Amino acid sequence: MSNILRLSLPFTVWIIGFCAVYALQGIACSRHWPPGLDPRTALIAAAALFTAIQGLVLWRIIAAPSRTSFVQATATILGAAALGAALWTSLPVLSLTVCS
Amino acid sequence: MNQTGLHGTALRLHKTLARIWAPDPGWRGWLTTSNNNDIGRLFLCVATAFFVIGGLLAMLIRAQLATPGSAFMGPEAYNQVFTMHGTVMMFLFAIPFFEAMSMLLLPGMLGTRDLAFPRLGAYGLWVYIFGGTAVIIAMLMGLAPDGGWFMYPPLTSAAFSPGLGADVWLLGITSIEVSAIATAVEVVVTVLRYRAAGMSLSRMPIFAWYILVVSVMILTAFPPMILGSLLLEVERALDWPFFQVENGGDPLLWQHLFWLFGHPEVYIIFLPAAGMIATILPVMARTTLLGYGWVVAAAISLAVLSFGLWVHHMFTTGIPHLGLAFFSAASTLVAVPTSVMIFSWIGTLWKGRVRMELPMLWLIGFFATFVIGGLTGVMLAIVPFNWQVHDTHFVVAHLHYVLIGGYVFPMIAAVYFFQPLLTGRSSFFRLGGVAFWLVVPAFHVTFLAVHVAGLLGQRRRTWTYNEGQGWEVLNLVASVASFVMAIGFALVILDIAINTFAGLRGRRNQWNATTLEWAAANPSPNYGFASIPVVRGRYPLLKDPDLALRIAKGEGYLADTSRNRRETLIVATTTGEPSQVVVLPGNSILPFLLAVVTSTSFLAPLFKAYWLSGLALVGVIILALIWVWRLAPARTEGLVDAGHGSQLPIASETADPPGWWGSLFLLLADGVHFGSLLFGYAFLWTVAPNWPPPTYLSPELWPVVLAVGGAVALALAPRLMLRGIERGRVWPMLLMGAIGTLALGAAAASVMLARPDPASHAFDATLWLLAGHVAFHAALTLIMLGYLGLRRIAGHSLRVGEARIVGLWADFTAATSLLALGAAWLPGAFG
User: Fold this and answer.
1) How far is CA B789 from the centre of its chain?
2) By CB neighbour count within 10 A (0-12 exposed, 13-18 middle, 19+ buried), where does B193 fall?
3) How confident is the model at residue B65 (pLDDT cuts 50, 70, 90)?
């Protein structure tokens, strides 16, 4: 089971982070956002946090390898790909305004 | 033993296994069989019938659009026809067809004798047949839905779509989704646990990886759609205003729920076809798959990425630029894993020596078509272009390039490739080649013309068009070519049918394939393998050409038939080490009966017969209890001889029986359903225009105490019961669990009583759904605890595995109940 988790975790973290940042944007543009908090800063912080978690997942995969070489190799590919995906899908947060 | 003696042993083994695994005689056998061969064949035939119906509907569409101002059909009929075409192809053909192929092929590929839960497979088949037939009958009676296959409200609300059409879609399709989820659970557990000895994760056939990924996708993509259908049906039937803006609802919620399902659906359809390609291509190229690990990684990443794209179907709904950019970025990302697969397949062809047989021809058709569809998909991911062509025929052409090129062509290749295995006969008539040269060029003529018509501005879902817009020639060409394509598809079906019944008896493994399914006799008998093979590589027949003979002689596991029952092996998930012997159920009418009552409970609301729906639900519970009661053995066997000198436990006597794994994945689907409900609530709260409601629900002391106390009791009871089983004392724990469920039910009832009118505002309606979730799961867990109590009364010894299964459900109920009730009280608690 841990090997299955190892294979599924990197992109699961990506989809959670992706949806969380999108949800945060939805709330930022709704009437429920706290007035004193800059939504763009919050979004950048959230994207950075999830990218960091993604990096942590990759680091854990490499640092604590599976005993099965196939699982280890595939999980490493997935961890690196998910980190790349996180960086790519975070780019709009840096380059666009939040609610226009 | 001499050669004659060996053959005698093999023959005796074959005869005994054939008797044990035989279906009931006569027509009754079709209703009671649960064997993967029988169920798979039925699934395949029914799905093909629906493909023919969907194809005929497509011809009606093209006949209507062939000329401007056509009087062939009126707008009402056209709306029904295009809605039914999409619905039939997506729900009644595409998914069931690959499920059928999986059912037929997976046990052989994995080296097991049947799928994990054979009766669940049979149940899924019958629910699918009843639901699909109801939808088709409704169409023939003029009651077809007409709101498009994605059924957007408010068009499909009771105000704008009166009558039964939309209800038929919502209830019929939901029942088919239940069938798909049942099959997905079955497939996931099969791939993870039911394999040949020594078949580690790295030795699994590539198709098994694909189908594992797809099945998990079904478990996570279908629940939002089921929730959406439930909300829309409840709104239509009871006026609970989930999508009515004036009462706190929002029609955009439907689009989110639908596309949370709808976009992964595209990959749910494509990935099994990709699995077929990755299986067939190396055999046709007389080599092995290039980059197996990379392809597995690509399939997993593509599957998850597909869940981050749903909003690209909603680019024109007024979403802020940042949201558009998120989903545009994610949409372009899918090109990466798709390209990894494509390059792996090209590389496989490059390193091999390709033989141009019929399956290979269809795979070339795939390459030529799917790559174009993929590229137009990248174009559609770019927001400004998407805005320009949204809802035009360009999108229609794109999706047909992806779905026909990426699914239908590879599946035809698969049918031709596996025909000798499934029927024992080789292609004799050569209609298939003619059909290919009719279908593929005609397809490209049709849909290239449709692309251009879309770029010139022709809107989709519009029943006619005027002269002088430059679309006349394009539409005529598309229509003529589509009829040629239809003739080609008809020839494919005719060719396969003729070869199935009148083809030449072929030799075993005529393609010299290297995966396990070809080690079985052709056609595969119901028991699959005379003994469970031992596997030492990813391509077992490549390194061990005599494996088939040794399996037939009973030199694998479980060749001893003296226990006179259907047995197969369960292995450790990662290593493939044999770990359990599982006893599979025999023929039974129960799956059929359960499907009848399930379908009745789904379809009765069409006629406002809610009492019948409730009665059928009671029938579902009673039959399900009989089902599991009969499956659970009364006595304990201990270890049994599995062959090769190993003594293994019977699966039902272990701590992780197949039922535990099945429950785990069913709860994954249930959890996604609940998560979608919370998402819908949060969406309405933050986005819906007429929100907040006049008042929120304030939490009161006693309901909160009941909720927390009930959840704690329910979570603790199974844990204590595990200790109690060792000491033979379980009644106090059962009672504790029962009290926990009742307390949760009472807390849920307090929410409903506090807001007695769910039709007044979307907030109230959502509260009822949250409370309904709690009440439903509390009742379900109570029934499970009651079942354990009944087993105890009947003198059966309770097993750790059973208690752990109930524990899973109890934990889920406790956790989601606290979340649901917390979500209901949260806004009121903070004003």
Assistant:
1) 34
2) buried
3) very high
Give the residue among B115, B97, B119, B120 at the shortest CA–CA distance from B189: B115
Find the chain A residues whose C-beta atoms sit closer than 8 A to any C-beta of B: 1, 3-4, 7-8, 11-12, 14-15, 18-19, 21-23, 25-27, 29-32, 43, 68-71, 73-74, 77-78, 81-82, 85, 88-89, 91-93, 95-100
Nearest to B296 among A15, A74, A81 (CB): A74
Strand partners, B117: none
Per-residue pLDDT at B1 exceeds 60: no
Interatomic CA distance for residues B125 and B131, integer angstroms: 10
Query: For residue range B265-323, what is the model confidence (pLDDT) as tens digits?
Result: 999 999 999 999 999 999 999 999 999 999 999 999 999 999 999 999 999 998 889 99
Average pLDDT over residues B515-534: 93
The C-alpha angle B222, B223, B228, rounded to 5 degrees, equals 100
CB contact under 8 A, A11 and B301: yes
* B77 — pLDDT class (breaks 50, 70, 90): very high
Coil, strand or helix at B715: helix
Preferred mutation among B326, B332, B664 to probe A, highest tally of A CBs within 10 A: B326
Tokens in use for B457?
């501005």
Give residue-wise pLDDT tens across range B742-793.
999 999 999 999 999 999 999 999 999 999 999 999 999 999 999 999 998 9
Output the 3-class SS for B470-527.
CCHHHHHHHHHHHHHHHHHHHHHHHHHHHHHHHCEECCCCCCCCCCHHHHCCCCCCCC
d(CA B300, CA B45): 30
Tokens of B387: 């805005």
Amino acid at B242: F
Domain boundaries, chain A: 2-37+44-95
Place of tokens 């506090």: B754
B276 contact partners, CB below 8 Å, separation of at least 6:
B101, B207, B410, B411, B413, B414, B417
Domain B692-829 CATH (choose: 1.10.20, 1.20.120, 1.10.3290, 1.20.144): 1.20.120
Q: Specify the pLDDT at position B6.
A: 61
Token pair in block for residue B782: 């109570």
Nearest to B330 among A7, A70, A89 (CB): A89
Q: Contact B754/B697 with Cβ under 8 angstroms? A: yes
Chain A and chain B share a number of CB contacts under 8 A equal to 104
Q: Distance between CA B392 and CA B456 in Å, rounded?
A: 9
**Residue B266: which of B377, B127, B390 has the closest Cα?**
B377
Q: Give residue B346's pLDDT band: very low, low, confident or very high (50, 70, 90).
A: very high
Give B644's strand partners.
Answer: none
pTM for this entry: 0.96
Contact at 8 Å (CB) between B358 and B433? yes
Dihedral through CA B484, CA B490, CA B494, CA B495, nearest 10?
50
Domain borders along chain B are 692-829
Burial B577-591 (b: 16+ CB within 10 A, else e): ebbbbbbbbbbbebb
Number of Cβ within 10 Å of residue B335's Cβ equals 17
pLDDT in tens, B88-109: 999 999 999 999 999 999 999 9
Nearest to B718 by CA among B740, B733, B738: B733
Q: Is B600 within 8 Å of B616 (Cβ atoms)? A: yes
In whole angstroms, give the CA distance from residue B360 to residue B370: 15
Q: Measure Cα distances from B555 to B378, B530, B546, B558, B644 in Å.
A: 52, 9, 11, 9, 8
> Among B233, B133, B117, which Cα is nearest to B176's?
B133
- Tokens in use for B141? 């009676």
Complex ipTM above 0.90?
yes
